[in-house]
């Protein structure tokens, strides 16, 4: 396992950008699923909750395919 101190400045920057993007996508998906009525969700909301927390693809899949935007 690589220690934080062993990473270059560029590696640290990339890591922080990716981590913050992942957190933002997850937060967006959680808030959207929480506030969106069941009729506006493809499938069951209960099934989408665990999908959202499968990183890094779960939030993207929910935001792309889980919402009904008719």
Terminal CA distance reads 46 Å
Let me know the largest β-sheet.
none
Helix tally?
3
Number of strands: 0
Task: Kindly provide the radius of gyration, computed on alpha-carbon positions and rounded to a whole number of angstroms.
Answer: 16 Å
Order of helices and strands: HHH
Provide mean pLDDT, rounded.
94
Helix content: 55-70%
Backbone shape? elongated
Beta fraction of the residues? under 5%
- Spans where pLDDT lies below 50 across 5 or more residues: none
Q: Pairing-aware structural class of the strands and helices?
A: mainly alpha
How do you describe this structure in short?
The protein is mainly alpha-helical and 70 residues long. Helix content is 63%, strand content 0%.
Main traits of this protein?
70 residues; mainly alpha; 3 helices; elongated
What does this structure look like?
With 70 residues, this protein is mainly alpha-helical. The chain is built from 3 helices and no strands.
Question: Which helices and strands occur, and which strands form pairs?
Answer:
Blueprint: H1 9-35, H2 45-52, H3 58-66
Helix pairs in contact: 1-2, 1-3, 2-3
């Amino acid at each position: 396992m690589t220690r934080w101190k062993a990473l270059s400045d560029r590696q640290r920057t990339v890591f922080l950008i990716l981590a913050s993007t992942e957190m933002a996508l997850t937060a967006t998906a959680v808030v959207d699923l929480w506030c969106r009525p069941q009729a506006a969700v493809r499938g069951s909301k209960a099934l989408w909750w665990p999908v959202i927390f499968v990183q890094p693809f779960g939030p993207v899949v929910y935001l792309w395919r889980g919402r009904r935007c008719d």
